[in-house]
Every structure is written in structure tokens, then in C-alpha cells.
């Protein structure tokens, strides 16, 4: 395990975006795999490899570049100057992440992208339908999981490992998202 982490460390320092794209795609695919295996929409349902590939594509090509940039922006632009700088910067970063990114970028991007990747037409109607059934439950669940984790992530983890840390916790989160995407009308 130590050797694997050493290789990852070398890659993340040399090619951060590419490394984040590969790891994010893999881990979103893992979340979809778990959702299909543990929570099938119908008993005896065959495994949908195309669905998993869509999750891998979304994670690696759409979300990873955005997440990579997001954590770097938070680290450099959201900084408290003064007393308790580290603690206050962490609080601000969590607040911006949870009050800006999650409700206005992360969750809408996921549902809109996956609806388009699934070729559910008419796109706008299907996206609005997904938002009406899933947006608030997803956002509320997000606020139960992510603020606490992000506090530790922003406070303890170096910026170049933050997306990986999020991705590891996201195996469970992505399982939940995939379940919600495919099990609410």
C-alpha cells in the first residue's frame, strides 16, 4: 500500500490534472458499480456497463478538471488573514464549498450531465424533472455528509491530495447519487 501511495504521490506532483481525472473517473465508476450491485432498480436486473462508463466519463472528463481547479481556488482565494488564520480559513472554505459549489455547481452539474449522457430527451424537461424529484433530498444529504468531512479535508490534507480524499469518501456518496439518479422518477 505504501508503494502504491508513493507512485500516486509522484504522479499527482508531476501530472496533477491527469492523475485526478483517472482517479476520479475510476472512483465514480466504482460508486455506480456498487449502486447497481447493492441497490438494483429491479430484482435480477442485468449489470449496465454503459451506465458505469457514463459515470467514469462524468467523473474523469467533466468533474475532475472542475474539482481539481476548485480546490486550488479555495486554497488560494479563500483565506482569512489574522487571528486563528488556519481555523478561520478552513471554516470559510467549508462554507463556500457547501453554500456555493454543492447547491449551484456540483449537484446541478451531476444531474444535468448524467441526463444528457443518458440521452434522455427532451433534455431540459428531463433535467427539470430530475431537479424537482432529487435536488433537495440530495442537497440535504450532502449537508449531512460533506461539511464535517470537508472540515478535516481542508484543515489536514495538502491541497494536491484533497480531490483524492474527496474521491475516496465519494465512493459511498457516488453510490448514493447513482441510486437516486436511477431510482426516483
Automatic annotation (TrEMBL):
<feature type="transmembrane region" description="Helical">
    <location>
        <begin position="91"/>
        <end position="111"/>
    </location>
</feature>
<keyword id="KW-0812">Transmembrane</keyword>
<keyword id="KW-1133">Transmembrane helix</keyword>
<dbReference type="InterPro" id="IPR007248">
    <property type="entry name" value="Mpv17_PMP22"/>
</dbReference>
<comment type="similarity">
    <text>Belongs to the peroxisomal membrane protein PXMP2/4 family.</text>
</comment>
<protein>
    <recommendedName>
        <fullName>Protein SYM1</fullName>
    </recommendedName>
</protein>
<dbReference type="Pfam" id="PF04117">
    <property type="entry name" value="Mpv17_PMP22"/>
</dbReference>
<feature type="transmembrane region" description="Helical">
    <location>
        <begin position="159"/>
        <end position="181"/>
    </location>
</feature>
<keyword id="KW-0472">Membrane</keyword>
